[in-house]
Design a protein that fits this description.
The chain is 0% helix and 61% strand. By secondary structure, the chain is an all-beta fold.
Length: 118
C-alpha cells in the first residue's frame, strides 16, 4: 500500500536518501492484520564491485535501519529491534545483493542475484 523506494539516478557516497514506508494488509477468517516496515537513515556508500552467480556488477551500497511492526485486532505490536540493512544497487540492473544484520553484526538474512538476462 503506497510503498515506493526512492533510488536517485545519480547517487554519490554520503548521500542521504528518503525514508521508505511499506504497508501490507491481510485478512483471514475475518481477522485483519496490517504489517508496516520503515527503512530509515538510508545512506549511500562508496562504489564497490559485487560478484554473484549472475556476474560481477559495479554497485552503490545503501545502508539503513529497518523497523517493523504489526497491528492485529486493533492492537499495535513492535516486531523486534531495528535491524541494520545493506542493499547493493547497480544502475541499469537493480538490486544485486541485500543483507540484514542482527544486533551483534551477524548476517541474519540475505538475498543475491542469481541470474540476469539483458
Amino acid at each position: 500500500d503506497e510503498g515506493f523506494m526512492d533510488i536517485p539516478k545519480n547517487m554519490y557516497p554520503g548521500q542521504k536518501l528518503n525514508d521508505v514506508n511499506f504497508t501490507m494488509k491481510t485478512k483471514s477468517s475475518g481477522m485483519e492484520m496490517v504489517i508496516t516496515t520503515n527503512l530509515v537513515d538510508r545512506t549511500v556508500g562508496a562504489k564497490e564491485k559485487v560478484t554473484t552467480p549472475a556476474g560481477t556488477f559495479e554497485c552503490m551500497p545503501i545502508s539503513g535501519l529497518r523497523k517493523s511492526g504489526m497491528r492485529v485486532m486493533g492492537i499495535n505490536r513492535k516486531m523486534g529491534n531495528p535491524t541494520k540493512e545493506i542493499t547493493w544497487y547497480s544502475p541499469g540492473i537493480g538490486i544485486v545483493k541485500s543483507e540484514s544484520y542482527d544486533a551483534k553484526g551477524k548476517v541474519e538474512s540475505s538475498q543475491i542475484l542469481t541470474e540476469f538476462k539483458r
